[in-house]
Amino acid sequence: MKVFLTINGRLHYLWRAVDQEGEVLDTLVQSRRDKKAAKKFFRKLLKGLRYVPGVIITDKLRSYSAARAEVMPSVEHIQQKYQNNRAENSHQPTRLRERVMKRYKSEGHAQRFLSSFGIITSHFRPRRHLCTAGIYRQMMKHRFAAWGSGGWALRTLPESDRK
C-alpha cells in the first residue's frame, strides 16, 4: 500500500489504494506514516469512492489498524503475508515512470503526477488476458476514442467496457 520516495533528499511515502481488479483508486504522497497520515489517506479514499469497502488488505504497519478503527470501524481488516501483493505490484509502473522522469522535484509534483498517472494507466491497460484479440482491439479503440474526445469518464465508455 505504500512506497518510499526520496524527494529533495527527504523520505516521503506514497500511499496507494487498489481495488480487487488491480485498478488504482487513490494515491497520496505524505512525509509521515503514522496514525494521523493513515486517517488522512482513508478519509481521502472514502470521499472519492462513494461507498465503504467490505474488506481492506494492508501490510502489517500498525497505523492502519488504529486509523481504520476510527475511520471505518465496520470494515474487516486483513494483514496477512502476501495478501497485499496486488497493491505492491501496482507500484511497478510508478517506479518506471519515476526513473524516466529522473525523480520527482517536490511533494506537490509527485502528488499531481501520480494522482492522474494511476487512473490513466488503468484506462489504457485493460486486463488483456481476459478477452480475445478482437474484443481487446474494440475495447482499446473505444478507450482511445473516449480519450481523444476529452470526455474519458465512464459515461463515454461502451456498456461492455464498464466495470
Q: In words, what does this structure look like?
A:
The protein folds into two domains: 2-125, Nucleotidyltransferase, domain 5, CATH 3.30.420.10; 126-163, no CATH class. Residues 154-158 have low confidence and may be disordered. The chain is an alpha+beta fold. Helix 1 packs across helix 2 (62-71). It is built from six helices and five strands, in the order βββαβαβαααα.
Question: Which helices and strands, and how do they pair?
Answer:
Blueprint: E1 2-7, E2 10-18, E3 24-30, H1 35-49, E4 55-57, H2 62-71, E5 76-78, H3 85-89, H4 92-101, H5 107-124, H6 133-149
Parallel strand pairs: 4-5
Antiparallel strand pairs: 1-2, 2-3
Question: Nutshell version of this structure?
Answer:
The chain is an alpha+beta fold. The chain contains six helices and five strands, in the order E-E-E-H-E-H-E-H-H-H-H. It is globular.
Number of contiguous helices: 6
Major β-sheet, in short? 3 strands, antiparallel
Cross-sheet strand order for the largest sheet: 1-2-3
The assigned structural class equals alpha+beta
CATH architecture of the largest domain: 2-Layer Sandwich
Number of structural domains: 2
CATH superfamily of the largest domain: Ribonuclease H-like superfamily/Ribonuclease H
Please compute the radius of gyration using only Cα atoms.
17 Å
CATH class of the largest domain: Alpha Beta
- How many β-strand runs? 5
* Spatial separation of the terminal alpha carbons: 22 Å
Residue-averaged pLDDT: 78
Strand content: 15-25%
Contiguous uncertain segments of 5+ residues:
154-158
Amount of helix: 40-55%
Task: Characterize the overall form.
Answer: globular
The CATH topology annotation of the largest domain reads as: Nucleotidyltransferase, domain 5
